[in-house]
Each structure stands twice: as structure tokens, then as C-alpha cells.
Amino acid sequence: MTEDILRKLKQIISEELDINLKPQEIDENASLFEEGLGIDSVVLMEFIGLIEANFGLQFTDEELSMEPFTNLTALAELISRKRASQ
């Protein structure tokens, strides 16, 4: 299930955010921020909204801490846990 989530997250980044990468070029263990994919705070807010819409979930304030958003692997694990608890 996590692989499907990772695939969808890469698709969202590639197709819906202003990131010039193809899904296969995105390293799921790279930082989402400056030193990795280069996502800034404005793009991060857009990304969060797209994740919530695409996966039918809503993040709590606690979940919006930076830790789950360090890389796509951590984010996919959070999404998987949230979906399992619904």
C-alpha cells in the first residue's frame, strides 16, 4: 500500500506542483525542502491541500509538524496509518 501512496505523491509533485521533475526522477528519501526537491512553504501548503483532496483525509495540527514532511517515505507512512484508522 505504501508503494501506491508513494507513486501517487510523486505524481502530484510532478503534475500539480511547480516542480520540474518526472515521477521517476523523484527520490522518496530526499528532503522535500531546499536541499532536496526545493519545496518552499507556499508550495508545501498547496501540496498538503492536494494530499488531503487526493487521499480523502485531513491532517491534524500535530501531524503538520515538519517531521512527517521530511521526505516522501515518512509522509507515505503517515498517510498509510491515517487511512488504516479511518
From TrEMBL:
SUPFAM superfamilies per UniProt: ACP-like
Q: Which domain of life is it from?
A: Bacteria
Check the record and name the InterPro entries matching this protein. Answer: ACP-like_sf (IPR036736), PP-bd_ACP (IPR009081)
Q: Which residues form the Carrier domain?
A: 3-83
Which Pfam family, any one, appears in the UniProt record? PP-binding
Q: What is this protein called?
A: Acyl carrier protein
